[in-house]
Write a structure and sequence with these properties.
Blueprint (H helix, E strand, L loop, with lengths): L1 E4 L19 E3 L5 E5 L16 E2 L4 E3 L9 E2 L3 E12 L2 E12 L18 H11 L25 E6 L10 H4 L3 H15 L4 E7 L5 H8 L6 E6 L8 H9 L14 E5 H13 L5 E7 L8 E5 L4 H5 L11 E5 L7 E2 L11 E6 L50 H5 L6 H9 L5 H5 L10 H5 L6 H14 L5 H8 L4 H8 L6 H9 L1
Parallel strand pairs: 1-11, 2-14, 9-10, 9-12, 10-11, 13-17
Antiparallel strand pairs: 3-8, 4-7, 5-6, 7-8, 13-14, 15-16, 15-17
The protein binds iron/sulfur cluster (SF4) (2 copies).
């Protein structure tokens, strides 16, 4: 077994927070209504179903072969009630509302087979595309069907990660226990066959790396895998930090691993690949971890895509008033907000519920006292075994920079956030900010999190990068040429805007 120790520059261990998901997995009762989110941007393609239509579980209800996207399926058997816009991850998106009858019968993906090794790469790509599984990962899985901004033959590396670097992380054993390891390793073999040139890497934190040997024992097909033991430090799971830790490859700010030929996936994503190809299962179900101190039980739920948060949370919350709760998708520091009436989509792995504290917004500092997290060791939680509690309150006002240097210490990009943000704050942006490395900032928000003076540093830097691009101090071509980036033409075509807005590019590929 090839075992390597991964290093991260900067970063911060966000540990011992109350509300970590346990190993328990429960199947969510089928709700009466499902709300399946479609594309996040307005493509020309409408859903294939209309109000009153009967739909089957696994039936494709949206597909656009001309854009970077993957088909979307009905999660249940039922009747289409409406197609309307709804709030979904801080955007208004088209959503198909289906009244469910059952989900016992599932339309299988054409071509699936247990004997997949006899299939050619193109056949496998088609199954993965038609199953919708190609929407998973940080930027989608490349197939010959425009499911990602690059083609399978352009992929140089595949990184599968479970780095425990967020405040709340899914428990990896939920996916790997029982026959999970078999699904995972066979899914890896399928991906290796499609992306034949790619090297395969698995990155896991020191907490979960005991799975390395189990995985290595289960691997077949002579797969060559490099195993990387990583520190459980935020933001290890971000594309650019993973690429640096695992491959020593630099990705400039605002671009993704896919733009350097790196496909980045989670453990559950690989299991879905197996289920699509071997079992013919379209992507209609997800396992979602319920995290945060406001859930009364931090379990994992197996649920249908399109289940509303209100259906999940009924009877599972410690606070009664929904105005007192903030739901966040996947990451406390960078995740999108959801509300009670939002559906769970295909890319949600962790649903976080925090207490909404009035008066402040945006920041996610913990409560004062011994249950507060503190980079500076100020609080007793550093030495006492209490679980820390996190909510949405800033607990204080912004002050002048104290030159404590915390933001510099944690910055994974190795820049000086405290030197850079005043250029934006005082409206004095010019080439100097570029020379100081503002474009290395990966928008992880960690500097803001640790800032003693509660300065929204990361937001200033984000604004600064936007302005510098608008004022042409830096051009996209500078990044493309100096970093040999790929897949930007497809991204530009799809979102109709600059690839310097990678979140839109990524999310579109993912949906
Ligand atoms: S948001 Fe940018 S400046 Fe702040 S810690 Fe992250 S990479 Fe560094
Ligand atoms: S963490 Fe905040 S107060 Fe400390 S140096 Fe950075 S900007 Fe200044």
């Amino acid at each position: 077994m090839k075992l390597l120790n991964g290093k991260i520059s900067g970063g911060y261990e966000l540990k011992q927070f109350k509300g970590q998901p346990s190993q328990e997995l429960i199947v969510q009762v089928l709700p009466e209504h499902l709300y399946i989110p479609l594309s996040k941007t307005d493509t020309k393609i409408k859903p294939f179903v209309r109000t009153g239509d009967k739909v089957s579980a696994g039936q494709i209800i949206w597909q656009d072969d001309d854009s970077v996207s993957s088909p979307i399926h009905s999660s249940v058997n039922g009747i289409v009630e409406s197609v309307k816009k709804m709030d979904y991850l801080e955007q208004q998106v088209s959503v198909v509302k289906i009244t469910s009858t059952d989900s016992t019968e599932l339309e299988k993906v054409p071509g699936f087979t247990n004997d997949w090794r006899k299939l050619g790469g193109k056949d496998l790509e088609k199954i993965i595309y038609l199953s919708g599984t190609s929407s998973l990962g940080s930027s989608g899985i490349p197939t010959g069907f425009k499911s990602s901004v690059i083609e399978p033959e352009d992929v140089q590396h595949i990184i599968i990660h479970s780095t425990d670097s967020e405040v709340f992380n899914p428990d990896v054993s939920v996916f790997l226990k029982d026959d999970g390891v078999k699904k995972f390793t066979e899914g890896l073999s399928i991906l290796a066959k499609i992306m034949g040139k790619a090297s395969i890497h698995i990155a896991m934190s020191t907490n979960t790396s005991t799975w390395f040997q189990v995985i290595d024992n289960a691997v077949s097909d002579n797969l060559s895998i490099s195993f990387h033991k990583t520190k459980a430090k935020y933001p290890q799971s971000h594309d650019s930090v993973l690429a640096k830790t695992v491959l020593n490859i630099d990705i400039p700010a605002n671009y993704k691993g896919i733009n350097k030929g790196i496909v980045i996936l989670g453990i559950q994503d690989v299991c879905h690949v197996y289920e699509a190809v071997v079992e013919g299962k379209p992507l209609t179900e997800k396992i979602v971890a319920l995290a945060g101190p406001v859930f009364n039980d931090n379990i994992h739920l197996s649920l249908k895509v399109g289940t509303l948060i209100s259906d999940i949370s009924t009877g599972r919350l410690l606070l009664e008033d929904k105005e007192d709760i903030r739901f966040i998708n996947n990451s406390v520091l960078t995740g999108k907000k959801s509300n009670f009436e939002s559906p769970i989509g295909r890319n949600t792995e962790v649903l976080i519920a925090l207490e909404e504290k009035r008066g402040q917004d945006l920041m996610f500092f913990a409560k004062p006292g011994f249950k507060k997290d503190s980079f500076s060791n100020t609080f007793l939680a550093k030495i006492l075994p209490f679980k820390k509690t996190i909510n949405t309150n800033l607990n204080g006002e912004q002050r002048a920079c104290l030159s404590c240097g915390f933001c510099q210490n944690v910055c994974p990009a190795g820049i000086l956030p405290n030197v850079l943000f005043p250029y934006v704050e005082r409206d004095r942006l010019d080439e100097t900010a570029v020379q100081y490395g503002i474009f290395k900032c990966i928008d992880c928000n960690l500097c803001t999190y640790v800032c003693t003076a509660k300065i929204p540093i990361a937001a200033y830097l984000k604004e600064g990068k936007k302005k510098l691009l608008e004022d042409a101090y830096v051009k996209e071509d500078d990044f493309i040429n100096s970093y040999n980036l790929i897949g930007l033409k497809a991204g530009r075509q799809q979102v109709g805007c600059s690839p310097m807005q990678p979140k839109e590019q990524t999310n579109e590929a993912a949906e």
